Amino acid sequence: MKIYSIKMAFVFVAIVGSTYMGSMFSNLKLGNSIYFAAFFQLCVFLLLNYYVTVGHKKSGNSQIRRIMIASMLRMFVILIFLIITMLNQPKANIPWTIAYGLYFLLFLIFDISKNHTNLRPDLKAPDENGNN
Length: 132
What we know:
- The chain is 76% helix and 0% strand.
- By secondary structure, it is an all-alpha fold.
- It has one domain.
- Helix 1 runs antiparallel to helix 2 (33-54) and helix 1 (2-25) packs antiparallel against helix 4 (94-118).
- The chain is globular, with a radius of gyration of 18 Å.
């Protein structure tokens, strides 16, 4: 959990830094709310990762159930935040929505790669000949 948090914080810093540099060198202004949105996504991913890892000591079926519940919660919470932002901020335009979606995809790619390696820990690695 600690290594995951550090890696997610690094991804967050990279996202925020690239957004700041992009808005500084272009005419596209996304506003300060995009930084809050990135921080919100970081918090959602960290909390749901904590939810998944707390149940790690249980059976394999329980672990997969927790991963699926966390995936659904993640999608709904991120979409609800996007909808609320779009309704409350008329200035939240298409570039803001695209940036928000890209942030979600970047966090999700990182999270899926972590879950992919931990999804089947009981599966044996194939030997050099390709036989199990």
